[in-house]
C-alpha cells in the first residue's frame, strides 16, 4: 500500500480493530456507543475501508471478521508527516515551539523530550 491517509472516521474504526479483530456487528456496537454511529454508517465506512485496502475481512462461519491491513505505527507516522508538512512547513522546531508556547508541558514530558533529543543527537554522530 502507498501512503496511509485516514479520515477521522477511519481512525475510529482502526482504533477498534487495532484493539482486536471484530465483526461488523461488534463494530456497530462499539462505534454506536463511542461515536453515535448508526449501523448504516459503520457498514458504509467499513466497506469503503475494505475497498481502499485499509482493512481486510476473513469469513468465519456466517460472519466476516475485519482486521487492520495497516499497522498503527504506519498510520501514525503518515499522519505525523502530513501534519508536519501541512501545518508547520516541515519544521519540527516550529512544531515543538508551538507545543511549548501553547500547552503546559509537565516536567516528565520535558525530560522525555530531552532524552529523545539526546538519543537523536547520538544517532547523528
UniProtKB/TrEMBL annotation:
Source domain of life? Bacteria
Q: Which InterPro entries match?
A: ArsR-like_HTH, BlaI_family, WH-like_DNA-bd_sf, WH_DNA-bd_sf
Q: Report keywords, A-Z.
A: Coiled coil, DNA-binding, Transcription, Transcription regulation
| SUPFAM superfamilies for this protein | Winged helix' DNA-binding domain
Coiled-coil portions? 96-123
Can you tell me which family this protein belongs to?
Belongs to the BlaI transcriptional regulatory family.
What protein name applies here?
Answer: BlaI/MecI/CopY family transcriptional regulator
Which organism does this record belong to? Pseudoflavonifractor intestinihominis
Amino acid at each position: 500500500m502507498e501512503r496511509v491517509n485516514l479520515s477521522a472516521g477511519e481512525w475510529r474504526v482502526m482504533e477498534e480493530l487495532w484493539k482486536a479483530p471484530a465483526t461488523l456487528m461488534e463494530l456497530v456496537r462499539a462505534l454506536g456507543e463511542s461515536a453515535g454511529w448508526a449501523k448504516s454508517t459503520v457498514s458504509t465506512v467499513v466497506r469503503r475501508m475494505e475497498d481502499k485496502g485499509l482493512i481486510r475481512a476473513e469469513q468465519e462461519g456466517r460472519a466476516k471478521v475485519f482486521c487492520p491491513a495497516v499497522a498503527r505505527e504506519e498510520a501514525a507516522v503518515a499522519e505525523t508527516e502530513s501534519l508536519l508538512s501541512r501545518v508547520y512547513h516541515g519544521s519540527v522546531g516550529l512544531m515543538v515551539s508551538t507545543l511549548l508556547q501553547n500547552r503546559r508541558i509537565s516536567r516528565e514530558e520535558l525530560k522525555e523530550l530531552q532524552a529523545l533529543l539526546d538519543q537523536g543527537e547520538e544517532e547523528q554522530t
